[in-house]
Amino acid sequence: MGSWEECLCEATVTYVNDPRMALGWNVTWDVTWESTRSEVAKNQSHALDGTNLPGRVSRLDRGWSTVWYGPPSMGIEPVRVRNIGAEVAVGDWVVVSADGEKVEMVLPRHSAFMRRASFEGQRAEAHTIAANIDVVFLLHALVSPPNQRRLERELVLAFDSGATPVLILTKLDLMESAAEVKHCVDTLEAVAPGVDIHVVSGIRGDGLEALLQYAKGYRTVALLGASGVGKSTIVNTLVGGQVQSTAAVREGDQRGRHTTTAVQLVALPSDPIGEAGWLIDTPGVRAVSLWSSGTGIERAFADVFTLSEKCRFRDCKHREEPGCAVSAAVIAGKLDPRRLDSMKRLVAEEAALEEEQKARLKVEDRRGFRKRKP
Description:
Elements lengths: L3 H6 L17 H18 L10 E7 L2 E5 L10 E4 L10 E4 L6 E4 L5 E5 L9 E6 L3 E7 L6 H14 L2 E7 L7 H12 L6 E4 L8 H5 L7 E6 L5 H9 L24 E4 L10 E4 L14 H5 L1 H7 L16 H7 L5 H30 L8
Parallel strand pairs: 8-9, 8-11, 9-10, 11-13
Antiparallel strand pairs: 1-2, 1-4, 2-3, 4-5, 6-7, 12-13
């Protein structure tokens, strides 16, 4: 068939030797790439160089991207380029400039795990945690009191990302009572209907085999959780090596120290047919701030929205309106009032964010400036 470079030049996954397939490239990405090239040619009066094909971003380091064109296990050397003028996230498929110096283009994302930027002055901007992911593992530690409100926020982000959320309860090895484990599972399951839940131990390896199934077929899994929930231990055990450093949590509040300092794409061990997938580990996130929602709130609070369909008025605020099915469910003890309050707060937070975004765009318009989009 020839060298891998020759296969890449064909710009198609019809050739099974294309090493990008092991990174998650497929026929759908072929279509995306071809339509992107056509659009660039239409807008710029020239087509992108067909030999300069997309690679996948595996790591970001202060303005630099590491781009893979195949797994390192194949002996394919990555390239390191600048992110000048490009908004890039780990997991993105990008085209590098002809001189090999910078990211020239970011292909349209099929999914993106985003939250509100945490820096003052950038509160109306998005921060992309990971791109082109298939599954999001939401990690919570069994040794901490179950936090329904945090999980609800994470589920909104996960559903809006376009990926499938899966709840992972960690540190089973530190639990002495099966009743306490069940209480934690039941408490969190109550606000995550229909979401897969796994109870695992990164130290002993309990339940981790089931997690590997989510990445089969070169799929990409992102991990999200607060510091100290055991993300790095889970990554190290799944991968079978010391990929991330680990540290003990504080005994007083079970909060951890940040041990993951850079987001990166991590290869999982190959299965018998060689279709292993990828993990994207992220630094611990203590505050989960929403970004503008698509249908995330509706999906995360599907039980409340299903009830609201039975309300007498379509614009019911679920306060004191007559014929409110949601309020009736609260009175009857069928809906936790804290869950309803949580949903209302998230809806209000999203509305406030949208107003901030509108104000920011007005300021940029007055200045004759629009932020470049990937």
